[in-house]
Task: inverse folding
């Protein structure tokens, strides 16, 4: 094109000579993507030109984003010295930290960036990477991709059923967030899953089982199975954001493959992983666990006990909590040596936890204290 009629009319006509002239593209465009300054610019001129000549918009959707500004919300300028170049970020933090910043930013507003913001994302990245390290360490890099449809969920312990239910819900949210381009909430949910639901909850409860139970223990095997599934899911969920980290891990656990994580499909979770009853029960159990942790921390603060494994907790519950809690091992859930659960409907509160020192001898394997021989390693206790 050698002649210009009018710059905005010409730019608004690009859909005609770009999309309609090429067989590998389609008209109308799936999306027009531009900054918020184009509301009365390219977006507007394209809409006017196309509606005038073709009777409809040249796009199916529009995504409008803000501008990159400094940490205080000020426009970046070389004269004020608040410009951060992408190559400087790559050199100091690596590409995946920059990708996290993009994914976690709400592009509906201006996107703030400075080194303190990047440091926070680097810390979040460290937590995500540690989650992957924990998974890889406990499956000993022996990753097996499972057929989810063949998994008999009914045979798993309740905690594993609950984690699969959480995977089901997060996967549904993953698709919803992606379809609506809601990347910052997607990243927030995945980060929360790694730090709160896995590291501070599931991994915390199951670490003693993984370290202390026999390798052929069914409960341990079920846990390893779920760790494999979680690893598979996290790799697929994080691949669009942490493209280099997920590729590194994928190649580590698939040494015989020459494929890439970025050529794989996103996961689909069977409907039978959804379990509202288990979800409701474990939300109550988590509340009991939270109350127990408060009681334990109070004893630790007063130096009455050291670690939680030095504690013997007595849990008193009203009927609605007791009926759910009575068949669960709270010494495992709360990581204590002993735990008892009783019903008390005369209390004002739903949950009351009393923590005291566990009495007896410490098992040198699991470190649990008992007056009798350790249930798992009795032959080692004296």
Result:
């Amino acid at each position: 094109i050698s002649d210009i009629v009018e710059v905005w009319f010409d730019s608004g006509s690009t859909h005609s000579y770009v999309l309609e002239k090429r067989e590998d593209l389609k008209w109308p465009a799936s999306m027009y993507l531009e900054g918020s300054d184009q509301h009365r610019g390219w977006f507007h001129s394209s809409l006017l030109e196309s509606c005038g000549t073709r009777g409809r918009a040249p796009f199916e959707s529009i995504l409008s984003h803000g501008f990159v500004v400094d940490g205080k919300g000020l426009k970046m300028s070389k004269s004020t010295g608040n410009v951060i170049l992408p190559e400087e970020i790559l050199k100091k933090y690596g590409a995946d930290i920059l990708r996290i910043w993009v994914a976690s930013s709400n592009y509906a507003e201006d996107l703030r960036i400075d080194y303190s913001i990047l440091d926070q994302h680097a810390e979040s990245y460290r937590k995500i990477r540690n989650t992957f390290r924990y998974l890889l360490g406990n499956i000993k890099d022996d990753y097996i991709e499972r057929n989810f449809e063949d998994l008999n969920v009914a045979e798993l312990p309740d905690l594993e059923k609950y984690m699969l239910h959480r995977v089901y819900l997060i996967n549904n949210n993953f698709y919803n967030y992606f379809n609506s381009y809601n990347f910052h909430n997607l990243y927030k949910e995945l980060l929360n899953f790694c730090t709160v639901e896995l590291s501070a909850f599931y991994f915390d409860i199951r670490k003693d089982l993984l370290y202390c139970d026999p390798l052929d223990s069914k409960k341990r095997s079920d846990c390893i199975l779920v760790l494999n599934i979680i690893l598979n899911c996290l790799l697929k969920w994080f691949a669009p954001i942490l493209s280099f980290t997920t590729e590194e891990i994928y190649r580590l656990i698939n040494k015989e493959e020459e494929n890439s994580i970025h050529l794989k499909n996103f996961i689909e979770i069977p409907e039978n992983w959804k379990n509202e009853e288990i979800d409701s029960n474990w939300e109550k159990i988590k509340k009991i666990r939270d109350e127990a942790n408060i009681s334990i921390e109070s004893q630790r603060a007063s130096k009455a006990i050291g670690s939680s494994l030095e504690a013997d907790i007595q849990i008193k519950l009203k009927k609605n909590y007791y009926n759910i809690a009575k068949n669960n091992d709270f010494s495992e859930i709360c990581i204590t040596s002993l735990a008892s659960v009783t019903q008390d409907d005369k209390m004002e509160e739903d949950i009351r936890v009393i923590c005291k020192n566990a009495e007896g001898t410490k098992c040198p394997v699991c470190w649990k204290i008992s007056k009798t021989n350790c249930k798992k390693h009795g032959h080692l206790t004296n």
